[in-house]
Amino acid sequence: MKIAVIGTGYVGLVTGTCLSETGNSVICVDIDPDKVQKMKSGIIPIYEPGLDVLFHRNIKQDRLHFTTDLAEAVKHAEIIFLALPTPPGGDGAADLSYILSASLEIAKLVKEYKVIVNKSTVPVGTADKVSAVFKENLAPGITVDVVSNPEFLREGVAVEDFMKPDRVVIGTRSETAKRLMTELYAPYVRQGNPIIYMDERSSELTKYAANSFLATKITFMNEIANLCELVGADVDAVRRGIGSDDRIGRRFLFPGVGYGGSCFPKDVQALVKSASDAAYDFKILKSVISVNEKQKVVLVNKVKKYFNGNIKDKSFAIWGLAFKPETDDIREAPSLYIINELLELGAKVSVYDPEAMGNVKALLGDRIDYSIDPYEALNGADALLIVTEWSAFRNPDFEKMKALLKANVIFDGRNLFDIEKMTDLGFYYNSIGRKLVNNES
Ligand code: UDX
């Protein structure tokens, strides 16, 4: 099929590339000429495991194209995906200006029936707003259908999530659009995972409900972990104990330093705002937001307590900056909150991350030190803080760590190590919701 994808951010690029992989002819459009030039010459603007293979293969096979020319893409495509940013506006509601202005431009270019698919995460009612823009601006006699088709891609495994989705949600009441979308997604659900059809508004809400539910699940576990510490229970045991109940499930029960990233914080906020616009007070989600804010600095609070509030001129190593492993994304990353707190308290900070160092450097410059490997960051540090659970941190050389650290003190925001092992190794080891290992007392 012939496809256009408008916007080559994270979602647009993964969507365009993965759609070309099953034989579709895809044109991706971006307004940034430098970015388009780079992609044309085979440079991927984001880090996403596995994307490069598909990207290069489909460019080579002439199925994946990049352009700044919206008219060319609109002419080419029978299905046009909108994958544009919906940043939070001042009041927490998603800002629809990119989507609505692109819709206006596209409407003026359309000369025959098209399916317009909204991939971005947008508040309930957006498909109606986009439809209205088209209705007002299409040439007489021409129609389009606007479909809601939210993405459920996790960064780091986005290619797999796209190629083998748990489900595809298609929100449309048009039989023609439904038929075309079903044909497009058929190769991706061959293993039997469902395409779930619904109306546009339910589809838009499904995306917010999914992310907000997951954010709530994580936040609930973070609170259980905090309670475990106070009552002498072990969150790992509790996690296993509840996760084996199918109704709860094993996934997304890992306590840590709070959720971050480009989706959960933004989507939870936006759902609270949508609810309040509809005169509904979404109490659970308001609590999720405030608990998560506190959780982001839970590690710093542990540090402060350990040093009796005096961390001025102390130096800290931080392992992990990305909001989660296998990405270079630092949007709403707990690491940034932790670093800011430490700097404000007068501490020195030395960091290491396998992928996200460049992004952090662009933001924080020389306010902190950047290390070439995890061990360099430890040199002379008063303590190590583990913030992102990269696999490379899971089995480190503990003796080497001891030799480099000024004191054998670890605050682990991701529960990477065994309590028994850390006890035997002689560390002070403070993790989330588990027994404190204190070899110093
Ligand atoms: C999320 C959704 O999973 C995806 O379906 C949606 O389309 C976009 O938002 P992503 O932001 O890439 O994907 O990350 P995800 O793997 O869901 O993790 C989100 C945050 O929750 C991270 O900060 C992660 O560290 C945290 N998390 C996740 C936990 O703290 N504990 C867990 O058990 C799982």
TrEMBL record:
<dbReference type="InterPro" id="IPR028357">
    <property type="entry name" value="UDPglc_DH_bac"/>
</dbReference>
<dbReference type="InterPro" id="IPR036291">
    <property type="entry name" value="NAD(P)-bd_dom_sf"/>
</dbReference>
<dbReference type="InterPro" id="IPR008927">
    <property type="entry name" value="6-PGluconate_DH-like_C_sf"/>
</dbReference>
<dbReference type="InterPro" id="IPR014026">
    <property type="entry name" value="UDP-Glc/GDP-Man_DH_dimer"/>
</dbReference>
<protein>
    <recommendedName>
        <fullName>UDP-glucose 6-dehydrogenase</fullName>
        <ecNumber>1.1.1.22</ecNumber>
    </recommendedName>
</protein>
<comment type="similarity">
    <text>Belongs to the UDP-glucose/GDP-mannose dehydrogenase family.</text>
</comment>
<keyword id="KW-0520">NAD</keyword>
<keyword id="KW-0560">Oxidoreductase</keyword>
<dbReference type="Pfam" id="PF03720">
    <property type="entry name" value="UDPG_MGDP_dh_C"/>
</dbReference>
<dbReference type="Pfam" id="PF00984">
    <property type="entry name" value="UDPG_MGDP_dh"/>
</dbReference>
<dbReference type="InterPro" id="IPR001732">
    <property type="entry name" value="UDP-Glc/GDP-Man_DH_N"/>
</dbReference>
<dbReference type="GO" id="GO:0016491">
    <property type="term" value="F:oxidoreductase activity"/>
</dbReference>
<feature type="domain" description="UDP-glucose/GDP-mannose dehydrogenase C-terminal">
    <location>
        <begin position="317"/>
        <end position="419"/>
    </location>
</feature>
<dbReference type="InterPro" id="IPR017476">
    <property type="entry name" value="UDP-Glc/GDP-Man"/>
</dbReference>
<dbReference type="InterPro" id="IPR036220">
    <property type="entry name" value="UDP-Glc/GDP-Man_DH_C_sf"/>
</dbReference>
<dbReference type="Pfam" id="PF03721">
    <property type="entry name" value="UDPG_MGDP_dh_N"/>
</dbReference>
<dbReference type="InterPro" id="IPR014027">
    <property type="entry name" value="UDP-Glc/GDP-Man_DH_C"/>
</dbReference>
<comment type="pathway">
    <text>Nucleotide-sugar biosynthesis; UDP-alpha-D-glucuronate biosynthesis; UDP-alpha-D-glucuronate from UDP-alpha-D-glucose: step 1/1.</text>
</comment>
